[in-house]
Amino acid sequence: MLRLIQVLALLSLAAVPSASQSAEQIKVYDVTRGGLVMTDKVVRTEAEWKARLTPEQFHILREKGTERQYAGSLWNNHEHGIYRCAGCGLDLFRSEEKYESGTGWPSFYAPVARENVRFEEDNSFFMRRTEVLCPRCGGHLGHVFNDGPAPSGERYCMNGGALTFVKTD
Ligand SMILES: [Zn+2]
Prior knowledge:
With 169 residues, this protein is α+β, with helices and mostly antiparallel strands. Helix content is 18%, strand content 30%. The protein has a single domain (42-167), classed as Metal Binding Protein, Guanine Nucleotide Exchange Factor, Chain A (Beta Complex), CATH 2.170.150.
């Protein structure tokens, strides 16, 4: 009986914000709308990710892999547009903040908004680095270093395979 009451209490709580499933919501910046919006976190099983992503995307996003330098084309892309998460489509970077880092990986001095990236300390490979993840699907994107250009001094060193590019005017 107590259990039933707990379940009912949980159901009523979950029903308050919206009719959708009890997916956790986060606040992110939407480039097209030009403002902050609430969005559901994207949660999938390993099998679901494998079915949706290419083997390369899966390795980078879900297994924290790093692509080879000069792999793909995004490191050398100069088109105007938006770089989105290849896992969930979240807006991550704009061409305005992309720059030539000379590393062979697409590099940016800032994300579209602080809300659109998540940081985690990464001490693998005997290095102290800051990992950059997608806050919506948890996908691994790359690392951020503090040797970037002005005005931020930050260098977001991204895996091109973790991004999809959408050309805009
Ligand atoms: Zn994502």
